Amino acid sequence: MTLIRQHARAEAASILTWAVLLGFVGFITTSLWRYVLNSGALDVLDDLLRSATGTLKGLIGTDGASLTYLDGWIQSYVLGNWLSLLYVIFTALFVAGMVTREMDRRTMAFLLSLPVTRAQLLVSRWMVLLGALAVLHLSHFAGILLGLAALGEAGHPGRYALAEANSLLLYLFVGGLMLVVSLFIDDFGPGTGATLGVGLGLVFVHMSTGDATGALKALRGALPFSFYDVQAIVMQGEVPWGDLALLGGGSLLLLFLAVRLFQRKQIAV
């Protein structure tokens, strides 16, 4: 618990800043719905997005849901794929600070001289990542609730909360991939670039293959972002047990792999 508290304190300012940002984004994107609806622009957006292809379709795709309905708006804009850019950037920066930053500062040897094992150190930092993602998603969800209150609409908070939980596990999984990659890089600058590259690369491939067929379609289905089906959750009320289990289990497997790699990592004193 001491390791968790220490790392949480070190990252508190960053986590708070991102939480405020995500809460604000959740509130603004939700509360704008009626304004855009009354302006008549939603019909134009509906037609545009129905005919959209490629990256635009992947970025803000409605999957056939009308934006003139609140849930259609929340699915596409409030909880849509574009939000992944914010979560990926936060996760990449956070993960780069877990090991690579300490290696770059030459402080890792000191940390390991304390009465803790490598596994304990890495798992404690992974737990802080989990807590940070939970805070960010709770803040975004609170922003949605405030937006609904401003609109005077009930919406489906239970479905939105489930989508947030699915999203949390998605970025915990992506964070695990980033962590494994970062363990091979000891310089903070290149390490941050690598974690950002992993996350943004996955986002780009997922968004740009929305109309893919054949092998590319199969590749897209294997990407972690394919296990976040916000349309099925928000519009149909489905509980994605399979996606939640795969992302949760995959996150733990990636943590196990990261711990094994970290235990074998050469660290200069």
Automatic annotation (TrEMBL):
Keyword Transmembrane helix among record annotations: yes
Record-linked Pfam families: ABC2_membrane_2
Record's signal peptide: none
Parts of the chain that traverse the membrane: 12-36, 79-99, 126-148, 168-185, 192-209, 244-262
Record bears the keyword Chloroplast: no
Keywords for this protein: Membrane, Transmembrane, Transmembrane helix
Origin superkingdom: Bacteria
Full protein name: ABC-2 type transport system permease protein
